[in-house]
Amino acid sequence: GDSVTQMEGPVTLSEEAFLTINCTYTATGYPSLFWYVQYPGEGLQLLLKATKADDKGSNKGFEATYRKETTSFHLEKGSVQVSDSAVYFCALSGSSNTGKLIFGQGTTLQVKP
Amino acid sequence: EAGVAQSPRYKIIEKRQSVAFWCNPISGHATLYWYQQILGQGPKLLIQFQNNGVVDDSQLPKDRFSAERLKGVDSTLKIQPAKLEDSAVYLCASSSGQGARETQYFGPGTRLLVL
Question: In a 3-state reduction of DSSP, which class is residue B36?
Answer without folding.
Answer: strand
